[in-house]
Amino acid sequence: EKGGYDHFMLKEIHEQPKAYRDTMLGRIDASGKKVVLPELKLTDEQIRNITNIHIVACGTAYHAGLVGGSVIEQLVRIPVAFDVASEYRYRSPLITPQTLVIVVSQSGETADTLAALREAHDNGAHVIAITNVVGSSIARDADDVIATLAGPEIAVASTKAYSSQLIAFYLFALYLSQVRGTQTEAEVAHIIAAMQALPEQVEKMLDNTDAIKTYAEEISKHEHLFFIGRGMDYAVVQEGSLKLKEISYIHSEAYAAGELKHGTLALIEEGIPVIALITQENVMEKTVSNIKEVKARGGAVMAITYDEHIPSLLKSVDQALAIPKTLPILSAALSVVPLQMLAYYASLARGLDVDKPRNLAKSVTVE
Ligand code: F6R
């Protein structure tokens, strides 16, 4: 059942290339220049009238939403607000019929997410569900479903569901940009080509995980650590931090790199591990300054970045790990993989139950 892998989580991490391919299949036209989403009832007119988007979800699905919403803002220039589902309806969100609400849920059964969907409906919004279970309550109640085709996810810690949610968001963002004319055909084709390269790039990363394993064994001896990143990288490290907490029970915090000095820097002491994710090259120099602040207080910094930046970064960090290069908006689909592996190997090094962490259930049907 685990297909030769020691754990479902490891199997599901390795299924990501297939999940990416399956989620893209049939949604990119033969020319490779256009996204097609024939399953959508949402009309072009409705798309042109969207004034704002709300993305609502819990946990890992929320983290996928953070990336997805940021991609939509960049490609389509529609304002996006993000909410964890348990907060959404209690803050009287400003929903109108021109608001598009996107709920994200692997299981499609999360109680808070379902309640958020109903709140959106009560206020006349069109709701799109990005879900992995097409027969689920959330899929049934939503006006539209964009199915992630990741296959069943058994491990409590979500991996392939998250990353295929990213693929679904990329496709949907491109689709919106086509209708609203915010990207040229050439720009769309360029992004599609980069998306089509992602599965192989993930395979390449999974072929060699020795360095991340060694590093995970190192951090498994610590009780606290930090993740930092900017922009899309900040969204991804929030997911990396959750994954690590969830299955290794190591306390970690994910910080926007520039925010550390506004208080939390006080916690940086000799030897504390700090993982810096650096794929957003426009803000790389800024993150390097933040790394220097950490180093000056004795933090031990591991950078995860593109090969070409490692030689210069090694002047400011203790260790570095390379990931394959892609477009800035697609980086999450690659950079999350070493963070998943880090959590997996740290859990393993601590002798914990990787697939069934304490206190947690796969599907959360209470509010
Ligand atoms: C973490 C994890 C949870 C879920 C969350 C939402 O690894 O799996 O944070 O992402 O409980 O679940 P779904 O996506 O089923 O709504």
Briefly, what is this?
This protein has 367 residues and is α/β, with parallel strands linked by helices.
Word description of this protein:
The chain is globular, with a radius of gyration of 20 Å. By secondary structure, the chain is of the alpha/beta class. Helix 2 (16-24) runs antiparallel to helix 9 (185-207) and helix 10 (210-219) packs across helix 14 (332-349). The chain has helices spanning 8-14, 16-24, 44-49, 59-76, 85-88, 111-122, 137-141, 160-180, 185-207, 210-219, 232-248, 284-296, 310-313, 332-349; strands spanning 52-57, 80-84, 99-105, 126-131, 144-147, 224-229, 251-256, 273-278, 300-306, 319-323. The chain has a 5-stranded parallel β-sheet, sandwiched between helices. Strands 7-6-8-9-10 form a 5-stranded parallel β-sheet, sandwiched between helices. Helix 7 links the parallel strand 4 (126-131) and strand 5 (144-147). The chain binds fructose -6-phosphate. Residues 58-61, 105-107, 110, 113, 157-158, 242, 246, 363-364 line the site of fructose -6-phosphate.
